[in-house]
Amino acid sequence: IDRAGGVGAAVEALRATGFGKAKGKQVPLCIEARTLEETLEAYEAGCDLILLDNMTPAEAGRCVRELDRR
Questions:
Q1: Would you call 12 helix, strand, or coil by DSSP?
Q2: How confident is the model at residue 65 (pLDDT cuts 50, 70, 90)?
Q3: pLDDT tens-place string over residues 15-37
Q4: Non-local CB neighbours of 61 within 8 Å, separated by 6+ positions
Q5: What is the DSSP string of 18-40?
Q6: Model's pTM, two decimal places?
Q7: Cβ neighbours of residue 31 under 8 Å, at least 6 residues apart?
Q8: What are φ and ψ of residue 51, in 5° steps?
């Protein structure tokens, strides 16, 4: 994610390669978000699964509340 320039750029680069499409099946795209900003970026990029990585319960709760608003 860091090397790609952010979550959105990483997702776009993966999808451009055809990632997730194998033998006619769609493989879910999972991102580990380290911050609220990465969480929201992953959501906006259309990630199927967002893991809240190494967050405190308060930070994870804030992410969930922000996603509920969308």
A1: helix
A2: very high
A3: 888 777 766 777 888 999 999 99
A4: none
A5: TTTEETTEEPPPEEEE-SHHHHH
A6: 0.81
A7: 1, 7, 10, 11, 38, 42, 45, 47, 49, 50, 51
A8: -95, 130
